[in-house]
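USER:
Working in pairs, take the chain set out below, taking as long as you need, and write a paragraph about the fold.
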Amino acid sequence: MQLKMIGIFGAVLGSMLIWAGNAAAEERFNDLQYSKWAEDGIEYMAKRGTVAGYGDGKFKPAGLVTRAQAVTFLVRELYPEQLEKPAEGTTYSDVPKTHAFNKEIAIASKNGLASGFPDGSFRPDAPLSRAETAAFLTRAYSLSEGKQTANWSDTENHWAAAPILVMSSNGLVGGYSDGTYRPNQTVTRAEYAVFMSRLIQFERQAAIQAQDWDKLISYMTVSEQVGQMLMPDIRQWNGKVTTTVNEGLKSSLHNQDLGGLILFDKNIVDTRQVTTFTHNLQMEAGDIPMFLGIDQEGGVIKRIPGGTNLPGQMALGATGDSTLAEAAGQLTGEELKALGLNINFAPVLDINSNPDNPIIGMRSFSSDADLVTRLGLATITGLRQSGVIAAVKHFPGHGDTTVDSHLGLPVLTHNRERLDAVELKPFQAAIENGVEMIMTAHIAFPAIDSEQVTSLKDGQRVPVPATLSKKVLNGLLREELGYEGIIISDAFTMDGIAEHFGEDQAVERAVNAGVDIILMPQDSAAAHQTLVNAVKNGTIPMETIHASVERILELKAKYGLFERSESLTSKLAELNNVIGSQGHREVEREIAERAVTLLASRDGMHPDSFQRGDRVVIVAAEEEQAKQLEVQLKQASNNLSLKTDIALIGQAQTKETVAKADYVILASYQFRNVASQFGWSAYQALINEMNTRNQRYTLLSLGNPYETIYLKNIRSGLAVYGKQEPNTEAGINVLLGHQEATGKLPVKTN
């Protein structure tokens, strides 16, 4: 069967049916109020571009469908591409070249959908009977006899007994309460549309059950196919944040046939709400389930309220323990799956070899390619074991950049030998271990693709980023590295794409380059239409779309997304057993404790210690952070009778407050900015004064652990790789001597 394409069809003269415009354009009918039983079927076929009305919103559902109209429906559904070509015409005596449906009848005859009568006529304007309906539809679709009982008292000796049996035994047509089928009774337009919609949906279900994705794709419209390739974020509707399946979201889902969505904090209130939300999204999705993804890297990038707040990837890097990384992946996946989410945009496989990287930093495991590879593979394994898809990022590597691709277009100038040895190493290993989804980076790699284009931002020549590069995605990733899984772009809202390339051009170019799923288009409706138009005018080959959709459907099936039998009630009942469970919290605590790393020490083994009755001043950039540390210190040191105070970096009274302290916790947090441009001078001034007074203190690194590059003469320092409570609690316990600092710094600082 041919893939469904978009066709333009002619108008019908006189009082006959008007077949208007674009075959894929969905009409809205206003005369279905007395045909509610058929409304879904009529609208389904109209959306497919198969049936049309008479203009002015009239479908005339009670009108009789003619033989010509019936074959026209079938030709539009099955052979639309043939309507774009010249037709030879028919030989029927009553279908002249001037007949409105001459071409459709000719195509139907050529493909064996319908035939004429012994007298050489076709009788195009004769009403279609129920018997002929069964015959037409069973010729059009390859059906076997079904399992339902279908014994009609008036069909046994009828010429159409066989097709009526096939249709009836599969539940596609029914009879009457008196046990008759009434084969010679005429069929209304509403009935015919319903029969066709039932059959198409029956065939789609059969394809899904058989996992025959080529067959399913053949029943998908172009709109449905390109919709599978879009994964927007969920935005506001009527000025309110979207946390339920509202009418605006329903409209987007159905008008764009969306295959996936990404959720953010704004869409999540609590675990019960997000579980209900994802369940209802899947119920709304129809027969093809949705990819529902989220960024749950752990550490600074987290979305789940009340979930297990893992210490982050660099904390795992400091432990060096792949068993813990696998456990982290598995518990994260278990919690996401319980919430109805099936993709985690993690782990980060970028190697943070540049301290001035403003966006990756402690989101990376390490600056060492081998450690990133080992822990990355373990995390992928854990996610896979929980039944959640790992979407690793950001190919070919975002670790050695000084520009945030959210804000600009980074360029990585390393030669190919360096890329193979460092940036590409974890991705190559992940591919060899069967990773199923890879996210592209909006970063240019001239060593792989040196093409430049004119920027729409300022007219300057700019290099093509990996997301839009066929040489990177098809040449390097697929052909050289042998990757066969799904390629998903990074967000199209990021300035690395948005500023330099118009969305229409970028979307089309990304798909032609090899992207299977466009993540977060700025205007998903426009992106959808761009792809539909590109297929229609041939600028994106149908084979490219088919290959992407097949990969998407295969992965949805592999992870059981088509199996949607669990009730919302059972999902909600299970939440408390999974989200933030004791076992998960124990893994969280172990990672945090084993990650704490000694940055500096007077004795080479321990940070400065507290003494009973010490006056402790906690200095931080934010009051909230200082208070968090204060609470944790008081809770963990109840036998030391410590007196605490807080102060903020940069305030006039901070120096005076610090000078009166017996012990100072100086908390630094450098992330989402260039390390060399961070305000280190304020920290250095305090360190110098404390050293002069020989005060006891500890510099507590809560962010990227690069303090020792920029600060001198630190006498006591710890890195905990995050300002989340598990990280800071572990650091406090080491300061109090309850734990040892056993972590190893996973990045180079010299």
Observations:
- Residues 1-25 have pLDDT under 50 and may be disordered.
